[in-house]
## 1
Amino acid sequence: MALYLIGDVQGCDEALGRLLQRIDFSPSRDTLVLLGDLVNRGPASDDVLRRVQALGGAARSLLGNHDLHLLGVAHGARKSGRKDTLDGVLDAPDRDALIDWLRHQAMALHQTVGGRDLLMVHAGVLPQWSVAQTLVLAAEVEAVLRGPTLGEFVRTMYGNEPAQWDDALTDTARLRAIVNGLTRLRFCTAEGVMDFDTKDSADAPPAGFMPWFEVPRRRSANATVAFGHWSTLGWIDRPGLLSTDTGCVWGGCLSAARIGATLDDIEHLEVQCDQAQKPGA
């Protein structure tokens, strides 16, 4: 029995199928967590959703920014962009079932491995958030996504403000800050002010900012945080940090991490991907 984590698939179903074969994944034996952005930019988002859904309880997925974008488009709150490839889902005969399955996925997940915390998110964790608080805040958003006001929520979910977390935040501002931290974060200040413009590597932060995982005294630093989202960062496996987005949709690789008996025992497996999109605006 093994636990596997897979980085951003982004509609690359053929690569996902090959990777599952490469790791010899068995739904009756193994557990799979996809770290968000199942859909968009690649050629077969609908097939990705069907493949993961068919794995039943053996597979769970986090919601990434592209997954939330699909929910927004499906509920008329967003328009598809020039590079979006969501029509396969939006025009599918099983569209409603696919969208309903997606909205019930998680914003953050946690597992204890060898007595240590493994926290799984799509993008990052704000420095003020402990592991326990991250899970509580994720649950606040999950409750809305799964509830009757989803359509209203996705109309107010987007925006860069508030750019900094405050425990006193309420209502839409609070939920938006949680979503932005968990699904969009790359760089922030030591005080947790988020930057949403820079998508470069960790070596090129905006002035006054740093990668979220480099913030001193980050409250989640006692855990291993596994995430995707940042393709220019690539694969990183170091104490306390596991970065898994290796740019499948851009012609890189689709990566999986096999988690061993401890968080010091992580194996990197990957398959090469065909380029579905060219980087740049």
## 2
Amino acid sequence: MSRASSLYRLQEIDLALDRARARLLEIDRLMAGSAAVHTARGGHEQSLAALRGGQAAVNDAEHDVAAQRAKLEGAERSLYGGAVRNPKELQDLQADVESLRRHLASLEDRLLEAMLSLEELESTTRQAAEALSHAEATLLAEHASLAAERDQLQVRAETLHGEREAALAGVAEKDLALYARLRESMGGKALVLLKDDSCSACGVGLSASECQIVRNSAEPVRCHQCGRILYAG
């Protein structure tokens, strides 16, 4: 195996490790939270707050109706109880009773509106709870799939680490140093294939004699334009 081919094999392993690490990071990010669950939970919390407000409005309206009915009953007892005989006082009591009845009717209308609104809020809250439950169930299913994929990737990464250790045994120290520098500066790819007598990274063409050198040289040959190591395959 040539020095370039040893380096190319090492790069294939390193690129596979890069992909595995990147996917593991992505899985960790996905499992850390879900935008759908976050949105559904926010909607559910908002609906619960609105529901509590609606319940308080019904309670207040019921209290006001009960209090007004008690006032009306007291006024009617005074009007019809026979204790008051003065016509003027009876007239005033009659006017009070009519006013109290009108106000009671208004309060009962308000209570009915509050109860109807509460029914709508209860329906909205149920829908929000169902949406949250669905989002959480979906997330759990996704997590199960992601967890299985993560386990597979971790096993794959361990295998690749073992392959990398074996591949390193065939790489000269100076070649490894050059490879490491180029990997860092070239976005992970220190070596590229010589394809159709051209560098497959930058596209620069090579003469027939240059291609022959790439194929036969014991030393790694670098592209004179992009600087990567050329590998004939």
